[in-house]
Design a protein that fits this description.
Length: 115
């Protein structure tokens, strides 16, 4: 009985120190960064034109996330069905663009911009 207790304490200490070491390593490294996509961003033109260009780009490459800098003061992107949801601003803003594009696999991509 005494040997089992000692063995348990040794194993528990070894496992605990290994888990703590892994958590320290994870905290030190931080979260992995998402890949950043760059494309020739159209800086002129209306918000609608820029949003459509971004939606087309997302659909052509099946990118599910933001691409480039935000259009306007706030930008929301989404994918799924034709009327898929996107993020919306917390404060009252005016919707200046709402663009959609469909990928070859049938997924819809949507970009909305507010000012």
């Amino acid at each position: 009985m005494k040997q089992r207790t000692i063995l348990f304490i040794i194993l528990f200490t070894a496992i605990t120190s290994t888990v703590e070491a892994r958590w320290k390593l994870i905290r030190r490294r931080g979260r992995p960064h998402r890949p950043t996509y760059s494309y020739p961003l159209k800086t002129s033109g209306t918000d609608q034109e820029r949003a459509q260009q971004e939606a087309d780009y997302m659909a052509s490459r099946n990118i599910r996330g933001h691409v480039g800098s935000a259009i306007g003061k706030f930008e929301g992107v989404g994918w799924g069905s034709y009327n898929c949801g996107t993020c919306t601003p917390q404060h009252k803003m005016t919707l200046t663009a709402d663009a959609r594009a469909q990928s070859s696999s049938g997924t819809w991509y949507r970009v909305r911009a507010w000012r």
